[in-house]
User: What shape does this take?
Amino acid sequence: MCGIIGINSSKPVSATIINSLKKLEYRGYDSAGIATLYDGSINEIKSEGRVDNLEKSSLVKNMEGTVGIGHVRWATHGLPNSINAHPHSSQNVSVVHNGIIENSTLLKKFLVGKGHKFKSQTDTEVIVHLITENLKTENIVESIKKH
Ligand code: GLU
Assistant: This one.
């Protein structure tokens, strides 16, 4: 089962997110990732295998941002690799997810038709593109609710 952590703080969050993911390792997983928001940009770092692999990355050590999310993945759609690891992000939306999106194939077809380019094989990535698409006309709350 996957594990999810999100922190909104006044201090940098990457180290705390990594430590929190380690506490969720007992659930079993195949890859891990973290995304933070810093200076208006979303930065994500992901790796196959254990949270240790993420922690070893010098990029994570220097990762800034006081808002962030982390995930340890249990793959259902797509190989267990770093591209399919969560978070999945666009320029302004970043998502971690537990479970299965039953209508992801249909949604992906719709979003590709709107010009969205997918990077991963996951069902999860449709959420990113759907909210990003909805943000063209709606506020964030409505963009999440609308489907
Ligand atoms: N359907 C998601 C994926 O394959 C499941 C992620 C999870 O629950 O860990 O990425």
